[in-house]
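Could you please consider the sequence and fold following this short note?
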Amino acid sequence: MVGAAAKTVPMQQTRKHPVIIGIVGDSGAGKSTMAAGLAEVLGIERTLIICMDDYIKHDRRRRAELGVTAHNPAGNHIDILEQHVGLLRDGQPILKPVYNHQGGTLEPPEYVVPRQFIILEGLLGYSTPSLRDAYDLKIFLDPREQLRLRWKFQRDTTQGGYTVEQVMASLDRLNRDSVSNVLPQRGYADLVVNFYPPDDKPDEIASPLNVRHLLRPTLPQIDLTTLLELSPPRGLEMELARDVDGRPADALHIYGEIVGADSAAIEAHLWRSVANGSRDPSQPFPRLGAFCDGRSTVQHSPSLALSQLLLTQYLLTAALGTYAN
């Protein structure tokens, strides 16, 4: 499955630099999950994922003593991150720091070489002009706030090694730093992804969730006509929306109700587009949309899978011009 995915996306020989994708959002927004799906589409062995949490300056205990959070640029080696992104873009290796989320400790650095596709995911990836200029596509994940907080709480108390009390005690300071430093980066994104629960299931935190893609003017144009034609009612829907600054923007809704054969048909169309004729049609498509539920069980979401494929399509159009109808 992974090997098949690795051969799906053609790389133009004239491309001199790696393709760099930014995924930024608040804590618990789903950045790692989205990045993992994009890597499946692009090809695992051709994709390097860098979590920008690795550039945190202090371990968890020291941050608590200093009263600084990872949501504050002062708590991160942003200058080293800028240097490393520049080196990777030029095809040079780096000695990347390592942050252990489970224990909140700093580990020995690791030697990392660039690959054809580089995904940078984290809290502060658009915080400086140098970083913002490095990307071929900038994505901001902006799930509905109550949904994000529940995802964060679930993750931190299972994978992050935090107690319930520690998570609750940290929320006020993290939220203040997020408002000052993380959320303003939304304005620099080419595309904003907003997961939200259906109206009749306001407490839903897993599948089926709806998602809205806010398509900014800096995003390359792709023809969505076939996707909309393939979609059943309450599957995919385009609308003219308003951005947070009041400016008009196209918005694509993918509803959680799209399942089964309808979802599979749209996924197959998108796979054919991103493969651009380069994969064996007899081979099955890798299954996308994987996420961990509250019991740490792997589940699959059709709206997440379609989002991962569509974001890859926009990326390839922006960086390589490989869109095929």
Notes: The first helix runs from residue 2 to 5.
